[in-house]
Amino acid sequence: MDGWTARTLSEFHSPVKVAEAKASMSSPFDLKSFLTESSWTNALQEVFKEQYFEDLQKKLEQDYSGAKQIFPPKEKIFNAFNLTPIDKVRVVILGQDPYHDDGQAEGLAFSVPDGLAVPPSLKNIFRELTTDIPGFKTPAGGSLEKWAVQGVFLLNATLTVEAHTPNSHKGYGWLKLTDQVIKIISDQCPFVVFNLWGNFAQEKGKVIDDNKHKIIKNAHPSPLSFTRFAGCKCFSATNDALQKKGFSPINWSLE
């Protein structure tokens, strides 16, 4: 490694920045290189050897070559993993598909970078928090990174999407990978609260050991089903379940 490279990498402190630095210096598209968190890298070694993962990588290599506009930026495909190591996972919130409009997707389910308009589903999540968690104040921005670093694993079932084309990568192989990820969490973590919002997320929950973990099922917070999501008190229920098992509650505040 030359002096410039060593110096450059030393200036990056977050796992996401390390992923960005490595990606900028790698020539061929190497999907797993964007996963920099060691516990997840180790846990997914066998997954990386599977044929479907190789096929997934080939599809994404072509898409990210510039032929199409793909979200999130490739350095943030595994953002949720890089921010939340396996041994830190306390809560899972499962989304379906990354946001598909410009600049929204950042590799965390339901989250958007601060400075962008807050999408409707996230607005409804904040509405529920204001009635469920005493003192919660609706933040100006929509980034949920503060949750991720506390152990809230914000996993989308599909990790990439073509711009302005929802569910366009549903058939790429991501659904199999995220099933395997959920199974790894169920097997390896001592206790996790899984928040499964909507029928899609609840179907994905079949691989969870419900004798070991807490599963909270509710309607999806989208405007189409918010009347059934409202009042679910899933955030306080999550903290109650964690505390009963001796874990610290999540600080849901985003201010």
| Largest sheet data | 4 strands, parallel
Q: How widely separated are the two ends?
A: 40 Å
* Quaternary organisation of the protein chains: single chain
Radius of gyration: 18 Å
| SSE pattern, N- to C-terminal | HHHHHEHEHHEEHEHEHH
Task: Provide a count of the helices.
Answer: 12
> Poorly predicted ranges (pLDDT <50, ≥5 residues)?
1-13, 20-27
Q: Helix- and strand-based class? A: alpha/beta
Shape: globular
Largest sheet strand order: 3-2-5-6
Helix residue percentage? 40-55%
Strand content: 5-15%
Question: Total number of β-strand segments?
Answer: 6
* Averaged pLDDT: 91
Structure description:
With 255 residues, the protein is of the alpha/beta class. The protein is globular. The termini are far apart. 41% of the residues lie in helices and 9% in strands. The strands form two sheets. It has a four-stranded parallel sheet. The protein has a two-stranded antiparallel sheet with strand order 1-4. The N terminus is likely disordered. The chain has twelve helices and six strands.
Kindly summarize this structure in a few lines.
The chain has helices at residues 3-10, 15-25, 38-43, 45-48, 51-67, 79-83, 120-132, 145-148, 174-188, 198-204, 226-229, 234-244; strands at 70-71, 91-95, 152-156, 161-162, 193-197, 214-218. By secondary structure, it is of the alpha/beta class.
